[in-house]
Structures are given as C-alpha cells and as structure tokens.
Amino acid sequence: MDSQCVSILPRVCGVLLVSGSSLPDDTSLEKLLDWFTTVAQTGPSLLEACPCLVDFVSKVAFNYASGSSILSFTLKLTGLIGASEDGFKVLKECSVLKLVFNPQHWQEAGLWEDPCLRIGWIQGLKMILQHSEALSFFAQADLIEPLLQLQTDPSLFVASAANQTLAQVLLLCQSLSSVGHNGSKNRDLEHNSEISQLPGSQQILRLLAMLLVRVGPPLRDTLLLAVMNSLEELVTTSCSQLTVPLLDVILAANSGLRDDCVPKQRLIRLLWAMLNMKKPDDVMQAAAAVLRSHQSDPALSAHSARVLLLPLDIVTGVSLLDENSTGEQTTLVCFYLCNKCLLTPFKSMLSNPAEGELRILITEQLKRKSCISMICVCLSNIPQITLMASDRLPCPQRLIVTAVLLLLRLCCVDSSSSSPGCVEVVRFITGNSKVQKCALEALLVLSKSPGVKMVLVEVFKVLTEYLNSPSSDPSVLQKSYQVVIKWVGVCPDLSCITDQLREGFIQAVRKRACDTRWEARDSTVEFLGHLVEVPSCWTFTEQETEPLDVLLGGRRFTVPLLKEALQDPESYVRASSISALAQTLAPSWQDGTALTQEQEDIVAQLQEVLFQDSEGFARRAAVKYFTAWFSACSSPSSCWLLMQSMPTVLSQGVADLDWEVKLHTLELAELLLDRAFPDPSPSHSYAVMSDQDHRLPIAGQQSDLLSSLKNLVDWGVVSALLCGVVDCDRPVALKACQLLLKLRGIVCPVMDNAADTRVFCQLAGASVLQQVRKIQEIGKDTHVVSEACSEADEEGICASVDPECVGVCEVLRLLDLDEKLSILTQSSDHIYNSPLSLLQDILTAAAASSPPGQDSRQELVMDCY
Amino acid sequence: MKLYCLSGHPTLPCNVLKFKSTTVMLDCGLDTTSVLNFLPLPLVHSPRLSKLPGWVSKDGSLNLEKELKECAGRVFVDSQPEFCLPERELLDLSTIDVILISNYHCMMALPYITEHTGFTGTVYATEPTLQIGRLLMEELVNFMERVPKAQSATCWKNKEIQRMLPGPLKDAVDVWTWKRCYSMQEVNSALSKVQLVGYSQKVELFGAVQVSPLSSGYSLGSSNWIIQSHHEKVSYVSGSSLLTTHPQPMDQSSLKNSDVLILTGLTQMPTANPDGMLGEFCSNLAMTIRAGGNVLVPCYSSGVIYDLLECLYQFIESANLGTTPFYFISPVANSSLEFSQIFAEWLCHNKQTKVYLPEPPFPHAELIQTNKLKHYPSIHGDFSSEFRQPCVVFTGHPSLRFGDVVHFMELWGKSSLNTVIFTGNYHTDFSFSAEFINQSNLILKLILFDLIFLSELNFHQVSKLLKEVQPLHVVCPEQYTQPPLTQSHRSDLMLELQPPPMPYRRCSVLNLPFRRRYERVYILPELANSLVPSEVKPGVSVATVSAVLQSKDNKHTLQSVPKAPPVAPSKKRKRVMEEPPMTMAPKPLLSGAVPLEAFLATLQKHGITEVKVEETADGHILHLQAEDTLIQLEEDGTHIVCDNNEPLRATLRDLVLRFLQKL
C-alpha cells in the first residue's frame, strides 16, 4: 500500500467524521470501500495497513449526526474489518461490534427508517459472516430475527440483500457444521419453513432457490424436508405470480438429487402437478422450464415437449402430437404444403384427457391477442425440443419443420395459404414480425434435424416469399437471410433448386438491394458476402458447385450489385458492401487469378472511400479489404495492383481521424512487416524479441535485411508506424510502438551505421516530424544516447537534404520506445483512478466546502457538468 | 327511410337516400370496368392491334368480324369504349333534389345523371373536388375524342347473339345500358349545376334536413357527408383515409352518434403497411432502371400521384437516380400539378405551413424546376424530341384501354426488362390490367401495388373508427361482409359488427332500420308565456298547452289560439270559414298515486269499514263488501265498479281525487 495514502488516511477519516456530506461525488464512498476491499484482499490485514479505521468506526457509531451515507459506509467498513478473524477480535475488544450491529441502537436513534442504513447493516453483516466467531456473535446477538423481518422490507434492494445474507448464514452454518453450531442452523431453518407457509412470498422462494443451488447434501435434505409441505401447498393453490419462482425452487432442488430418494419423487410429482395447472400460460412456462433444466425424468420432459408443441399443433393443424404419427402422415402434410389443397384436417386422437382439456384451453386463448406470446414461447423452445432423443419426441422433427413452415406461411401478409388449424389466430399473427422472427429462429435451429433435407425446396419457397414481401420488417429480412445461409450450408445437394425458384430468389434479392430501408439493403449486402463462405456442395452428378452459383448464378450477379452498394447513401451499407466484396473476391485472390478490370475499378473506388468518405465505418472496411486481400494473396509481391496501392492506403489510413481506421491500418502494416521479415521460429511473439537472436551479423543477412527494410520504407510501412507512434489515440500509439519495437529488434542489431546501409524514410506531416526532432533534441541534452550514435544522428538524420527525411535505424534507436511502451500499456486514466487521487479529492472537496471556499466548490461542480 | 343502390362497385358508389321529404343522391361514380371488353385505342397506328383477326363462332354460324376481334384467346369489342352507368330504372332520377359529391373520383358519372334525365336539383361539392373533377373529365373526353372511331358496335349487344359469345362478354350485364363517353359540352353543363361548399358548412335542404361535408383525408377537398334532421343523423363515409398524406386529416368526431352510417370506399388489400408498399414501389422502380429497363406507372392525373412524386423526391438521390428522367404525360398534367399547389387551405397542416414560408406545399415543384420531372400534354409534340430511355413515365388511363398509356404498352410491352407498376385499386384496376397483359402476349414485367390504400381506409382502421364513432347501424357494399375471394381464410378482412352490417348490391333497395320517433316543434314566445307549469315531481313541471299547429317548409310551430272575435252586433251570419276553431277548456289531467294505507283510513272515516284488499300484479283491488263495490287501484288507472249507486261512486271518486294532483 502506498505510504502516501496511509499518511493521508487519518485526515480523510477526520473529514468524513466532520463533513460527510461534502464529498466530491456520491460514488467516492463506494470507491473508498472498493479500495479498502482490495487492500484487505491483497495485503496482510486491513487494520494493520490502516490502524486508524477502528477509531473512525467507533467514533461514527456514537455520532448520530453523521449523514446516513457515512453511517451506511461505516457499517460496511465494519463488516470488512470484521471479515478477518483478527479484525473481528479487535472490534469485539473495543465493543464496537455489538453497538454497530445492534438494530435497536439505530432504531432508538431514529435512523433505522433510512433504507440506506438498513442496507449498510445487512451488507456489513454479510461481510462479517466469514468465520465461526462471527457466526456465534450472530447467534448470540439474536440478529436472525431482524434479518428475517428485513426480508419483507418495503425496499426491494434491502429485501434482496437480506435474502442473500440469510443464504450466507446458512452456507456458513453448513461449512462449519462439523464445529457444531446446530443451534442457530436449526432455528434458521424453522424460520424459513414457517415463513414459506405464507402465500405470496416471492422473496422466500427466491432465497430457497438460491440456497438449494448452493448447499451441500445434509443441509439440503433437511431444508427440503422442512419446506416440502409448504411447496406442495403453494403448487396446489397455483398462483400465477409464483409460478416462475416456484419452478426455480423445484428445479434447483431437483437438480442435485439422486433419482431414488424420496424427496426427488415428491419433487417430480410437484412438477407433474405444475404441468397440469389450470392456466395455459403457467403450464407453458412450467414446461419450458422443465425442458431447459434438462430433467432426467424422461416422461416429464416428453410431456413438456408435448405441451410446448400444442399451440403449434393447434394453429397449423399439423398433428404433431398424434401418438402414432407415421411417415405416411408426413408425406401427406408435405403433399398438402406442395399442393396447397385443403385436406380434411387430421386431428390427433388424444390419449391423454388432461391434454385434451389443455388443448381446449389453449385453443380458447389462441383466439385472443395474447396468443402471440404463447406462440412465441412455443417457438422459442423448439431448440430445446430438438435436443431431445428422438424416441422421446412426440413426432419426427421433420413434422415440426413442416408445422413451422406452415406457420410462417400463415404469418406472411401476402401469402394466400390457409391452415386446417385454428382460423381465428390468423388475424393476430399475420404480419406480426415477432412471431415471424421466432419462427425463423426455430427454422434456423431445425436445419440440423435429421431427414429434413426433403423440405429444402419448401423452406426456400417460404423464405423467398418473406424476402419478396413488402411488409417484411428489416429484422425479419435479416433473419430470413440467415436461415437461407444455414439451410444451404447443411444441405449437401442443391439440385432441387430449380431455375424458376432461382429466378424468384434473384428477383427478391435484387429488389432488397434497392430497398428504401437501409437495414434491408445492409442485410442483403451482408448476405451476399456470407453466401460466398458457405462451403461448396455436390450435386447428385458428383459435380462440385458453390451455393452462390446455385442460388444467385455466381459472382457476375453479386459483384455488380455490391459495386452499386458502394455508392449507397448509408455508410453502414457502404461498409458492408466493402466487406462483402472482400469475401466475394477472396477465392480469386487465393487462386492467384489475374485481375479483372472490375477489380481495378473496385480498388479505385475503395481508395476514393479512404480519401473522401465522411463516415468511419466505410473507411474501416476499406482498410480491412486491403488487409484481407494481402493475407489471402498467395504471393502479394506479384500482385502489382495490391502493392501499388499499399503506400496510399497506409499513408491515408494512418492519418485518418478515426482511431479504428488507424488501428486497422497498423494491422495491415504488421502483415507487411511479417511478410518482409518472415519469422524463423514459429513460436516467437513479437513484443518480447530478444536482441540475442539477431546478434550474429552475416553478410548476406545484412543485405537481405537492407532490401527488406527498403521495401518496407517504399510501401510506406515505416512512415506509417512513425506517424502512429506519436498518435494521440492510445491504442494506435501502443500498436505502432509494439510494431516499431519489433522492427527495432530485427533491424538494429544487424545494421551498423555504415553510410551505405542507411535507409531513409520520408515523414509526411509536420507534427510527426516535430515530435521526432523534439525527441532527438532531448536525447542530445540528456546524453542518453552514446556519443557515436548522436554523431551518427548528426549526419544520419540531418544530413539528408530533404528536411522531412529521417534515417530509420537512427530514429528507432533514438526513440525511447521501451519507456513509451510502458506508459502506453497503462490505461489512460490510471492517474485519476488511483486511491491517492481519491483521498486527495475527498480532502479538497472538504476544504472547498468550508465556508470561505463555498463558491469555488460550486464553481467546481459547474465545471464538472 | 330508404336507400336505393345504383352502383355495385364498392369504391365507385352511387346511392340515393330518401330521408324525410328529401331525395339525396350520394356520389355518382362511373364504373369503368366495362371498358375491359374493348380493344385499346392506340394513339399511333399499331400494327399488332390492326392485324388482329375478327371473331367468327366455331361453327361459322355467327360472324361478327367487324365488331369483335380475337386476341390471345379472348374476344374484344372493336369500338369506342363504353361505360356502365349507375342504374337508371330503379327510381325516377328527375325526383332527385340534391347530389352530394365526396371526391373527384366519385363524380365521373355526373353528366349522365344531370343531363337528359330531367334533373333539376343542385350538386354540392367542395372547390378542389369541382376543379380536379373537371380536369379528370376533360382528360377522359380528350382521350376519347382525339382518337375518334367511326364505328359503334351494337350487334353483339343483341341478347340472342351475346348469349353465344365466349368468355366475359357473355356474362356482361346490362350491356344495352352501356354508354359512350359524354362530350365536353355535357361536362360543362353538368358542372354548372355544382354549388361550392366548405368543410362543416351547413346546408339546409327545404328545412327538412341539413347536410354538411366533413374532411375525409382521401384527396384534396374530399369529404364525408352528414345528413341530419333534429333527431336523426345519417353519416355517409366515402373514400377516407386516416393516414397522413397530403390532404387535411379526416374528421372523425363529427361522425359520432349516427343512427345509420353508410360505409363505402374501403380497400380490401390485406397489407396495412403503407411505408412498406411505398418502399416497395421505389425499390422496384430503382431495380428496373438499374437493369436498363423503363418503368410505366399508369395512374390518374391527380391524387396518389402527388404522394408518389413526393416519395420519389426523397428517394431519387439516395438511389442514384438523379439522371433518370421522370415524365408525366396527360392533357391536364400541367393544370393538375399547378392546382395541387394552390389549394393550400385543403391540405394537411404540415403542407399548409409551407405556404407561409413561402414554399410550394408539394416538392414536385422542385422536381420540375430541376428538370427531373417533365410534364407533357401528350406523346406528340415536345415529348417526342426530348424522350430519353431508360425513364419513368406516369400516364393514364389506368384501364390501359385509352390514353397515352396505350402507346407505351405497345412500345415497351415486348421486353421483359421493362416494368409496369400499377398503383390503382387491387380488385378492379389490377385484375383487368394483369389480364390484359397476359392476354396480349406482352412480356413486360407487371407489378401490382394497391397504393390506393394511401387514400382508402382498410379494415383494421375501419374497425377502430367504428369503435370510436359507434353508429347504431352500418350499411355497406356486400363485398365488405365476406373475406376477399383470393384470401378466404382472412376473417380479418371483413366487417364483423353487432348488429351485423346491412349489405347492399347493385339495384338493392334497403329499408333503413330505424323509425323516426320525434319531430321538433317550435312554440311562440307569447304562447310559452301563457303556460302555467305545475311541478309533478321535483324537477319536473308540466303544463297543458292549447294551441294551433302550423306546418310550413317542414317547420312546425305552435301558435296561440286566436281569441274568438267578439260576436258582431249584427245578426248577419259570418262565413263559416272565418270562424275560429272551437276552444274548449280541456279537462284537467291527473297525476300521482293513491297510497293504500291512507286511502283505507279515509274510507274508514267515511264509514266504509269492510274492505278486503287483494294484491294483483299491477296494484290492488279493494272489495267494499257491504256496498258490493270494487275499486281497482293500478299504476296507470283507477276503476270504480259500482252498480246503480251513483252517489257512492261520486263519493268514492272524490276520495280518490283527493290523493291525486290536477293539472
């Protein structure tokens, strides 16, 4: 701990005692407490480090006049001190502990009413409860009673904190149970079971859930036994508000139990009871929770799946829940979908009468507006259902796909399909983008199901319909594109996509590329890029085909669209189109195919973007395009256009206003650097290069390095790095600094200062040059650099005729890169966040708030805001 | 109260309301769907159309080569297009007192009604409706007259022959009543009968009813109408819109408390998302232009086109369409664009405020200024020298049968790069245009948009509107009471109300389901002065009135009874006619109830002691056993049944009267 802080701390305590209200800002107490916590955690003991704190605590405890925030802070601080056994002893000895944690004390002072104080009390108590001493103090002082009362506190924060503290008490009991504190434990349990009989107590249920997850077997069993009856009672009264917390408790209890124990069976019965509640919403919630918790009971999860699929079954009329649904029926439904003819609805014959009742209830609910949330619950749980073993599923997964597809059709505004299911629901779900998105999400997951490839054409048709529909929300369009990518990616054979389907799809995509909403255009452009990355597939004639070719007829369709999008008025779309172009052209870069005129045009356009685009997104994407090109290219040096554009990109990129553009530019520079000096050992990391590695100058090595360095200078890498290192944006300067260090590590040990090996570099921009010169001056003044070196500088840096030219090696040696790196790695606010600064702030604020400084403090506040 | 329905077209209505002693025609829309059976009228010679083969029946027995031409398996009449007029046999049109026009689209049949039928009444419309309506009529006449067809086909209309014709011709109804377009002279004569009204202006019709137009948000100057007497209110809702487009917003609150609401002009297009549709319009347009194709937008020369141009104004720059020319071709293009800018008071608030800046309310002024939008009266003349492709053309008529649009269909129909974007009404304009393109072997791309929704209420909005307005009864075209044929599962695309709406179709006569119960009667001050009200219960006072009821111009007044002139001293008999009506003081009216206990006590005082009281459904029966008399005390009457004992009856009567109040 900083000695300066220790010396200031007593004064700060004094200030807090006297003028607690005049704090610089309301978070400073929190910050102070945080600092104490770190001190306690890292150092030997808080009291050892700051002995003045005990005095402070005892003084505050008797000083009612302190503000409630100070009191609350003190309570927490007491807890922090008492958390260690030594601190606890000290506190006990000066009899502060009893006083501070006595609610009576605060009640008499009339301060208990303040929730701020109560929460301090609870949190202090929670912190202190770390060891057996504290637990016995807790039991002796009879604090359980007030703590239990606080569970029903009007303040939510207080109630929740009380809950957590109670859990802490129980957990501590558990860990110390061998030591023997059964007295307090049992009493606590009694209280718990007693209170959980009160209906409507959500807090208790939350506490229980929290405890059941964390406690170990002996205590858990006792706890379960104690509360089981109350739980059963609560389930039978079935209050909708309690459904979720009840489920949490039951599932938490259930998760750790062995199958054969008695409470487990009672819990399973409880879950069954919850799955048979009166209100469809509750039942759906229960079923969803059961599925999510991955119950081991097969019957239970199978039933939950049935419950969750019920709305889908009813709405679409596809009988998902028929006990003997067979392949034959699937074909029937597919036939129905393909031909859109009306078959007589085949309703499932229900074997379960309770399910029949639920079906009726859900059907009723589906006729109301609230059907939307119910259908969404159903759809959003389909992923869980598909995870189940196929023998537990009520129907084959492809039937679920069929139902989801039919639902999507019903939701589509322009679709004229009707369902054999519930007709009334159509008016609510048609055009509802929430349902559409949920259904598309479900379809996304269902692409993984076995045996669904046969419906690919149907999926494709529905998605085309969505892409075509004028009323599709942009978010729905985006989801549709994702689903296309997913399905195309998992389907090995795309030969089923006919020319007609393709034509329709192309029209839809083309239209969306001209959409008035930029979100739609953006998703379209992104889709074009992603589609390239979908792996190739084989047609049944064993020919390898790219999905892009099958769906859109290949690059000759997408590239013109993307080029058009480069002119888009919305910067996001421009950025996306640049990324998509990079994705689209990547394969041709890898193959090293000759450049086309089109590509040259694109490069020209991208350079224009770098120079002229007003938005950062597009410029970032443009730099990334070149990065992608360079990294994809098998031999960049042979690609004249790429290498030709490098100096422009680097110089423009590093001078950008946007720090991310600059950073991306430096990443490109890094690639070039790596390429110029290929790494001999694959395991090396750049920043920690040891000079040893390059200490042995071989004549050939030197000339190689020289030519590489010259290349780097020609490409503009060095000047970009030198620009970057003096950048005002810390991440940029840091990156440049790291790269320069790397360069120095490679170059400087090998290159001597012989005149014929000097490489000069042009520094554009006066500020950069000035900085370098300044550093150079300082270097001279302080004689940090060796005599020989500075002589070399005389000649090296200044000898060149062009005042903007600098010698690379000399600059690298001259710049104190190591010091720069250490400064840059610290976060920019490290000074302002130090504890010393916090303490000083408190002192200054107090000084300012004393009468003569009143005005100046107000001024300060004005300044801050 | 009766409603005569002369048109079956839901968005081009023509109804007649008989209300009190007035006969009011509500709109007179012209059903143009009949022109579908005719060949298009090309502006320049079309080899394709002129080479079509004539139609001869399969067995050769029927030869109408001159009148009927065959094209792609369908038969068209080769004659000047004819329109199906509102029904004229249902009632004598000369009895119509007034015609109320709700918007310029719903007045196109006006010359057929006002001319040559003996019509002597007045037509009421707002100023923009009249002016733009005149433009549309002028345009229609111009379209027809500039390509005159000497021939007028009539043989095919022969019932016997029509029966043997194929396709839709066979099923066309009332073909004998179809009429050719009117002349400019008839238009002028018809429009001279129009009297201008402003929103919420009250117009008295013969003192019987009051009519008043309300803003309907559909188009410039469009209105809904309220027809009301003192105690009854009928609302007529024609084309209305709740969307914020260019016209003044719809006035909904004034429609409240209607006894009957007549609802027409709804759109049955399922989508309710206008932004999506407008966006789609723009994307399709941009897509076609980018691919090097031309875009044809058949449309009316006023109305939705203003909104389209405004939408495109914002879109052109962002879609890089800055260099693409936009053409608007119509004989009235210039006037239409200019007129839209001068009716500021009829525009929505947003546009009204622009006028004070001062700026033109519609941005198409700027499009014209910057030469992005050019307008021409016809494809002849300047247009042909400045025509550049690819381009976007707005022109009429949406039926694709006449007007400049025919030329562009011939010109661009053969390339699939070109697109025709329909912005008309989904159920009428579209279906026939789509059919036309399919059946004319044209391969250009067809896109259908119900952009008319911009100016028409959809079902969602209507149910909201009705919930707020709460009319007692709703009358609507029968199409609205069932889902559209193509989407039979969409129960949300129909009107479901309690009580169910009364559907009408062409030639229906509906007895509107409410009785007139009250009539307002005025009372003269001096008569009112003479009344002496007496309080029957707290807050309610009653007086009897003796007066003379005078009815004149549907106004009823109570006047004092003239005093009998002093009997002339001469014994000469006066003429009977001048004798004043006999005045007799009316008997006093009784009110109140007879309290049983008190009455029994009174009877006892008068020596009647043996009373048996029997309770009945309406009151009590008292049996005076000694006197063998019955007294029935009921809520609205008291009977004393007493045989041959007049003194007793009189006593009893007086006793009863003691408890009652006299007026």
Keywords:
heterodimer; A: 865 residues; mainly alpha; 46 helices; disordered C terminus; B: 663 residues; alpha/beta; Rossmann fold; 3 domains; seven-stranded mixed beta sheet; 18 helices
Task: Outline the structure in words.
The complex is a heterodimer of chains A (865) and B (663). Chain A is mostly helical. In chain A, helix 11 (144-150) packs antiparallel against helix 12, helix 19 packs across helix 22 and helix 35 (616-632) packs parallel to helix 37 (659-676). Chain A starts with a helix and ends with a helix. Mean pLDDT of chain A is 77; it is low at 178-185, 193-200, 324-351, 682-697, 781-801 and 852-865. Chain B starts with a strand and ends with a strand. In chain B, helix 3 runs antiparallel to helix 6 (184-191). The chains are: A mainly alpha (865), B alpha/beta (663). Chains A and B meet through helix 29 of A and helix 7 and helix 8 of B.
Helix-strand layout with pairing:
The complex is a heterodimer of chains A (865) and B (663).
Chain A: H1 3-18, H2 28-42, H3 46-49, H4 52-62, H5 68-82, H6 85-93, H7 96-100, H8 103-108, H9 115-128, H10 132-140, H11 144-150, H12 156-176, H13 182-195, H14 202-214, H15 217-237, H16 243-255, H17 262-274, H18 280-292, H19 298-316, H20 327-339, H21 353-365, H22 371-380, H23 382-387, H24 397-411, H25 426-429, H26 433-446, H27 456-468, H28 474-490, H29 499-513, H30 518-533, E1 537-538, E2 544-545, H31 547-552, H32 555-565, H33 571-591, H34 597-612, H35 616-632, H36 640-654, H37 659-676, H38 699-715, H39 717-725, H40 730-747, E3 760-762, H41 766-782, H42 787-796, E4 805-807, H43 808-814, H44 817-825, H45 835-849, H46 854-864
Antiparallel strand pairs in A: 1-2, 3-4
Chain B: E1 2-5, E2 15-19, E3 22-26, H1 47-50, E4 68-71, E5 74-77, E6 82-83, E7 98-100, H2 110-114, E8 122-125, H3 127-145, H4 159-164, H5 167-171, E9 179-180, H6 184-191, E10 194-196, E11 203-205, E12 209-215, E13 223-228, E14 233-237, E15 260-263, H7 274-290, E16 295-298, H8 304-318, E17 326-329, H9 333-342, H10 349-355, H11 364-369, E18 373-376, H12 382-386, E19 392-395, H13 405-412, E20 419-422, H14 426-439, E21 445-448, H15 459-469, E22 473-477, E23 502-504, E24 509-511, E25 521-523, H16 525-530, E26 534-537, E27 540-542, E28 547-552, E29 555-560, E30 590-591, H17 596-605, E31 611-615, E32 619-624, E33 629-634, E34 637-641, H18 646-658, E35 661-662
